[in-house]
Amino acid sequence: MGEGYGGCVTTWPDLAVLELLVAVAETGSIGAAAAAVGTGQPSASRSLLRLERRTGVTLLQRTPSGTVLTAQGALVVDWARDLLAAAAHFSDAQRTLVSGRSAVTVAASMTIAEYLLPRWLVPLRTAHPDVEVALVAANSTEVARAVRGGEADIGFVEDGRLPSGLHSTVVASDRLVVVVAPGHPWARRRRLPVTASELAATALLVREAGSGTRVALEDALGQHGLAVRPALELTTSTAVRIAALSAQSPAVLSELAVAGLLASGELVEVRVDGVDLTRELRAVWTGSRRPTGMVASVLAAAV
């Protein structure tokens, strides 16, 4: 607990149990999650039950075949990821302050941070072992704001629109896909693609407004004079993916986020006719049009 404003006592979230909950979402079982965070399954189960009692919300549905998140649990995992990312950023910044070593802060949209940035940063770390690299994961709008405000040295966004006041270059391309659970009627439409009008008329599981994935979908439908109709808005691809597995609504996500589930048949890709769902992934920075120093090194690792 901590002392809040006005002498009020604030109960701070337990980061360890939030990390455990996120691990359950990623592994599908409490046992595997416990192993991932380095604790025993009985202790993990007790911690998760205490979290449910403390929040007053059922976060997990325990079944003979594994453990899945409830809809409320998916939202809590969404929020927990943001909190854990902020905690990691704080720890990195603190270590840099104490050690006096040079540092670079990289902000990246959720999809890029999860699926692309790790393999970009490994060679960077090898080439510059004396440099501390701090990663901030946020949606594309927030990444652009962080770079523009000097909170990050370089950012990576999924939004194809060039952010004002920033230099940018394309580092990769991506494709959004419409996916459904195997039992959804659209899963059986092998020969008859979904039209732009059908997609716009259907309530979809989507990322939040301001995310690169959402902006790309809005732009694609906007070319036909159509708008997105959200069934549920979530702030990470993982949360949308989990919801798609258990919901009756189609979801729209990066192909990077669902490749494994498409390969296993747990989700089915739906063909969409006449809607361009490809997009460019960009690096953004301030200052000189030609980046220098560690910003240039990070950019070189990405391209």
Automatic annotation (TrEMBL):
Keyword Nuclease assigned to the entry: answer is no
Please provide the record's keywords in A-Z order.
DNA-binding, Transcription, Transcription regulation
The protein's matches in Gene3D superfamilies, at most eight in alphabetical order, are given as: Periplasmic binding protein-like II, Winged helix-like DNA-binding domain superfamily/Winged helix DNA-binding domain
Q: Which PROSITE patterns match?
A: HTH_LYSR (PS50931)
Q: Does the keyword Oxidoreductase apply?
A: no
User: Which residues belong to any copy of the HTH lysR-type domain?
Assistant: 13-70
Q: Name one GO molecular function term.
A: DNA-binding transcription factor activity
Q: Which domain of life is it from?
A: Bacteria
* Similarity section: Belongs to the LysR transcriptional regulatory family.
Q: What is this protein called?
A: HTH lysR-type domain-containing protein
Q: Which organism is it from?
A: Janibacter melonis
